[in-house]
Design goal:
2 helices; 5-stranded antiparallel β-sheet; 6-stranded antiparallel β-sheet; alpha+beta; Jelly Rolls; 265 residues
C-alpha cells in the first residue's frame, strides 16, 4: 500500500512539474520585444490627404545619387514611403487582416527602405521618437515577422527584403540575417490579405560579432519594376536556446520531486 501511494504521489508530482514547465515555456518561448509603432498607427494622414509620408519610430533610407524625381513622375524620395489608413470594409482594397487601422507602403524602387534601431533615433530632436532598444543576447534566438502584401500590378519576381542587422564600430549597418520575398501572383493572390514572412537569427553565440550589439530591423526594396509593397504588424521575439529549456525541465522536475515526494503511511 505504501509503495502504491508513493508511486501515485510521484506521478502527481511529475504531472505538476510538467504543468509548471509548460507555464514557464509559454512565457520564455517567443518572448515578444516591443517594436515602436510596429503596426504603423502613427501619425495619421492630415485631413484631406490619403497618406502621411512621416512614420513615427521608423527612418527612411537616404536618397541615392541616381534618383531623379522627374524620372518617377515627380514623386520625391520622401514620398516613396508612408502610412495610409485601411479603406472601409466593402471597399475592394480593404485589407481584412490589418493590425489596427493603418499600414505602411514602400514604392517598389531599389534602395527604398524603412529601418529602426537605437542609434537611428535623432536624439537632437526636441521630441525624439522612442527608440527600439534591444540587444542580441547570447543564448537567445530571434525572430522577425512582418505582414506583407504585394501591390496591384507588381512585376513577377520583384523582391522585398526583411532583415536583422547591427551597427559596427563605424556605425555601418551589418546584416545578421535576411529573408527575400519574391513577388508572384501565386504568393499574393489577393489584395485583401497580408501574408506573414519571417527572418530567423540562430542562437547567438559569444563569438558572434553581433553578440551584445543593439538590434536593428529593416524592410527594403531590392529590385525595380513593380508598383508598391504594403507592410504591417512588425513583430520581434526572443527564444531561449532549446538546451536551456531541457535543463530547466529536468531541474524543475527534480526539485518538485525532492520537495513533495514524501513517504506515506
Amino acid at each position: 500500500m505504501q509503495t502504491q501511494r508513493s508511486y501515485t504521489t510521484r506521478i502527481r508530482v511529475v504531472t505538476a512539474a510538467l504543468a509548471a514547465l509548460a507555464s514557464v515555456s509559454f512565457h520564455l518561448c517567443g518572448q515578444p520585444i516591443a517594436v515602436p509603432n510596429g503596426s504603423f498607427e502613427s501619425p495619421a494622414p492630415p485631413p484631406g490627404f490619403p497618406v502621411n509620408t512621416s512614420i513615427d519610430g521608423w527612418q527612411e533610407s537616404p536618397q541615392p545619387a541616381w534618383y531623379n524625381a522627374a524620372d518617377f513622375g515627380g514623386v520625391t524620395w520622401d514620398q516613396l514611403t508612408g502610412v495610409f489608413p485601411n479603406p472601409a470594409p466593402g471597399d475592394p482594397t480593404h485589407i481584412e487582416n490589418l493590425d489596427g487601422n493603418q499600414a505602411a507602403y514602400l514604392f517598389a524602387v531599389p534602395q527604398v527602405a524603412l529601418f529602426q534601431d537605437y542609434d537611428s533615433v535623432d536624439w537632437n530632436d526636441a521630441t525624439p521618437t522612442h527608440a527600439f532598444d534591444a540587444t542580441y543576447a547570447v543564448g537567445l534566438a530571434y525572430h522577425l515577422t512582418v505582414g506583407v502584401l504585394g501591390g496591384s500590378g507588381m512585376t513577377e519576381r520583384k523582391r522585398l527584403r526583411l532583415s536583422f542587422y547591427y551597427r559596427d564600430a563605424g556605425n555601418n549597418p551589418m546584416t545578421v540575417a535576411a529573408t527575400d520575398i519574391p513577388y508572384s501572383a501565386a504568393a499574393f493572390p489577393t489584395m485583401t490579405q497580408l501574408s506573414d514572412y519571417m527572418v530567423n537569427v540562430p542562437v547567438v553565440q559569444a563569438a558572434d560579432a553581433w553578440a551584445g550589439q543593439k538590434i536593428g530591423v529593416q524592410i527594403a526594396v531590392t529590385s525595380p519594376g513593380g508598383t508598391y509593397w504594403d507592410v504591417d504588424n512588425v513583430r520581434v521575439s526572443a527564444v531561449p536556446e532549446p538546451g536551456s529549456l531541457s535543463l530547466l525541465a529536468l531541474g524543475l522536475a527534480a526539485l518538485l520531486l525532492r520537495r513533495r515526494s514524501t513517504p506515506e503511511s
